[in-house]
From TrEMBL:
Residues annotated as domain Endoribonuclease YicC-like C-terminal: 173-292
GO molecular function: hydrolase activity; RNA endonuclease activity
Coiled-coil region: none
Protein name per the record: YicC-like domain-containing protein
Entry cofactors: a divalent metal cation
Organism, scientific name: Syntrophobotulus glycolicus (strain DSM 8271 / FlGlyR)
Record-linked InterPro entries: YicC-like_C (IPR013551), YicC-like_N (IPR013527), YicC/YloC-like (IPR005229)
Amino acid sequence: MPESMTGFGRGKSEGAGYRFEVEMKAVNHRYLEIVIRNPRSFSFAEDPIKKIIREKVSRSRIEVYVNVKQTEEKLRLVKVDKDLALSYDKSLKELAEVLQAEYISDIYRLASLPEVLATDEEETDGKAVWPVLEAAVREALTELLEMRKREGDKLVRDLVEKTGGMRGIAAEIAARAPQVVEEYRQKLKDRIAALLGDVTVDETRLATEVALFADRASIEEELVRLNSHFDQFEHALRLAEPVGRKLDFLIQEMNREINTIGSKANDFLISRAVVNGKSELEKIREQVQNIE
């Protein structure tokens, strides 16, 4: 069955000196958009994470949050900028000469000057860390997909029920349509009789007028296409693949047929049924926006 585009998942893992917690949040979107928020030192993992998600998801905006904690102290290195230290020393000597002051090189004072000494942590070993992070990513994705499936099942049941309601409205319109033509024939006959009195009505001319009205007001083709759209809609809901765009297209076609029926209908009861149908169709459209 189709899946919902919304969901949430969380995964945890620990190893290689780190503890990871990955959270994924999916919301509706026309296409697939993946946004990853993680520490800069783990930027190497962005492309592999996106690849894993793309294998399972075709539509949604998915935000991935990677939380990292170190479980082991990293080796910290001290780097000395020798060229900068010598440049400081040379400049201080020159300044002492200008001021005619005594100058003695002081290594400790030089080391305290800006940027002479710097600390640097050992770089993250991506090859060693990735399998641990990958486990958390896959766990979060699995949980998200399970939630999307549960939500998708609920959406499908609701859409099938609403489509059944639309079929009922279409059947109501189909049953009413022949009565409209008959009522028109009777009203036309009564009107002619009121105008002409006892003069005999030309049944041939009357039948012609009624036939012209029936042709203008005919909604048989629209009802056939509408029921065909219902069939295709319900069939798509049984497919195990992304069908959101197809469902959206079918809703547009249903709306087109209902609007045509409404424009042709010269009847209060059919017009009321059309209004009810458009209201139900709008509810279906809102639900379909959540289908992948």
